[in-house]
Write a structure and sequence with these properties.
By secondary structure, the chain is of the alpha/beta class. It is 30% helix and 15% strand. The protein has a six-stranded mixed β-sheet, sandwiched between helices. The protein is globular. The two termini are 21 Å apart. Bound molecules: guanosine-5'-diphosphate (GDP) and magnesium ion. The site of guanosine-5'-diphosphate has 18 residues, from helix 1.
Length: 171
């Protein structure tokens, strides 16, 4: 099982998604500090919204196997910069939450996530349960471990470290 780190602005749906992935009933709880459980690290939105706190996200990321940017499908703007996968040395995925919202604009949020460098994008609703199983399946199994040489070979091809490079003869 891969350990997942959730980051995103307040109200993006991180804590609800944690509860949904863990099979718990949803209840609102303001996240006051970074919580770590067996499989998920949930951070307060302020870390993603405040420049001075943003560095802490990089520190927390070292405790996880997969990093996720969370954005609600009805968010009006994106707080993450382009190519922000550069701060990470773990796979970075995007999770679009609240796809059940009547104000959802999934293609727009998807384009923000692609711009951020997310290598996979999941669409979920913690309310209806849609997409949760696909995310659980992705988290199954052991995390991919790369050697320095494997990472450098991918970088030489202009690929992200975690890209599936089998088409280039790399394992
Ligand atoms: N419509 C909808 N609302 C959601 C969903 N997930 C969370 N919310 C609501 O969004 C608000 C913020 O959720 P929360 O999980 O606390 O966000 P966090 O600040 O990122 O941890 C709460 O009022 C939730 O009930 C969802 O899948 N669909
Ligand atoms: Mg929270």
């Amino acid at each position: 099982m891969k350990k997942l780190f959730l980051m995103g602005r307040s109200e993006a749906g991180k804590t609800s998604l944690t509860q949904a992935l863990e099979g718990r009933a949803l209840h609102y709880h303001k996240t006051q500090y970074t919580n770590t459980g067996a499989g998920i690290i949930d951070s307060p939105g302020e870390y993603s919204e405040t420049k001075r706190c943003g560095l802490a996200l990089a520190c927390f990321s070292f405790e996880a196997d997969v990093l996720a940017l969370l954005m609600a499908a009805d968010e009006p703007f994106c707080v993450f910069e382009s190519n922000c996968q550069n701060f990470a040395n773990r796979p970075l995925i995007g999770i679009i939450t609240k796809i059940d919202s009547p104000f959802a604009n999934v293609p727009m949020v998807r384009s923000w996530m692609e711009n951020c460098g997310c290598e996979r994008i999941f669409e979920v609703s913690s309310f209806t349960g849609e997409g949760i199983q696909a995310l659980r399946e992705y988290l199954q199994g052991e995390p991919l471990r790369l050697t320095l040489e494997q990472a450098k070979a991918r970088q030489a091809l202009g690929l992200t470290d975690w890209a599936d490079a089998s088409a280039y003869g790399l394992v």
